[in-house]
UniProtKB/TrEMBL annotation:
This is Carboxylesterase type B domain-containing protein. Residues 7-115, 127-417 form the Carboxylesterase type B domain. InterPro entries: AB_hydrolase_fold (IPR029058), CarbesteraseB (IPR002018), Type-B_Carboxylest/Lipase (IPR050309). It comes from the Eukaryota.
Amino acid sequence: MLRHPTLGKLRGLESPLTIQYRNLPYAQFNGRFREASIRDDPVSVDDAVYDATQWGPLCPQIPDGINFDFALAGAELPYTKRRIDEEHGLNAVVTVPKKHADGKLLPVLVWVHGSSGFRRALGETCYRLGILGLLASKELNSGGNFGLKDQILGFQWLQKHISGFGGDPNNITAFGESAGAMLLSTLLQLPTPLFKKAMVMSGSATLRPSKTEKQQEALYNDVVSALDLTEKSSEERKMLLYEIPYEDMIAKLPPLIHVGPSVESRFLDDVVTLSTLSKSTSPSWCTEIVIGDCFHDATCFKTRILNKPNNAEYFIGCINSVLVPEQAQNVIHAYSLSPLDSAETSLVKCIELLTDLRWYLPILYIDIGLEKTARAPKVSRYHFHQPNKFDCQWNGLAAHLFDITLLLQNHRHLLGQDAIRLGEEMADRVFSLAYGSGFVSKHEDDGSGNTVVVWGPDGASKLLRREEYDAELRRGRGMVLLGLGPDVCERLAGTIQFGSSR
């Protein structure tokens, strides 16, 4: 039993190496489409011991969304199906090593989960997702961003209470992948200090950029239409939106509706674009940021975009519709696109182009922004090239989520020795980041910040200079896309992804 100085008596779940404290409420739910408030009261009542051995409920989300993540990773695992509870889903998990020096506060690692699944790490906070976490409209008098603000409360709760678990509130490292990385990238635009270091994996604020008021109103109208509320009066519609059971709401809405953060006065001031990334970087309160991608990150778009009989034909049409002829030919040549390609060859080439547009380019533009910023946090880069070897559709590709599969090691018993070894090397770098030695150590870099960590494709790490990496492993394609300019690249990506340049 732990006598926590502010939370009270807690009983955690013991394993051979750790004690895990689950279902710790960090915020008070104040109603749908309303901001939550931080919980500062003890969790134990009348000096009783709080049972922190059971998983807390999750915030509402697509049913069995974890199976989508397992499909991307390439192999399913058994998991405990957790209860969904809109009111009590704002809870945290804290995992503490059993053996550590008494009185010495340890670095804190916080896993910012994505839209579903992959929730086993040293610490995490659940937050509101999708429409219930991000919907904004004048009619609801809602500025949205509830999921973002939930995360802010989670980090503020950790800053107040983590020392009682033996963690250092001044040395918090946040890491997240995909939607979790998009959220972290957005939090890095804010003036509020939340963590000391961040690792943004396969996602940035440009992947699902903040929506303007006009865009949010259009999304709101789409939601109203999907829920068959268009013909209702404004008051009836608002009442129903607040009262419709979340299960019914999720069932009626498209599963992949394009929600995102909102531009909101005195909170999130502007839309983050490739152009803004090229002019500035993240705030000084974060001392080190790690950014990276997987070579085939766009595998996560397979069911939404890359499901045509001939992907190359569609991509070539999009390229020709956006770019002038010379630019179009340069891009088509760089990715060796041909309408005569087989379906399999076409798919892989288009995955690589979409990955570069949506994942690799933001990294390159952050580099450009750093060169223009006098006072900037240290930024390190990695790129993941280890092929997935599971018997799945992504066999042979460095697919989206496969880096997390190796890093978190939940699939360890299914991996080959090269993948296990690489996962351990990846974890060593994350712990080095958390302990303050740097993701890239001083003896690995000449002080220019020009060193890139490459994971795979042969089960090992190597270091390259940034220009070497683009020339050798990206085949110079990054420079081809940079030559188009940020606005043109975003129009091209939007046209491919949505059928228009929105």
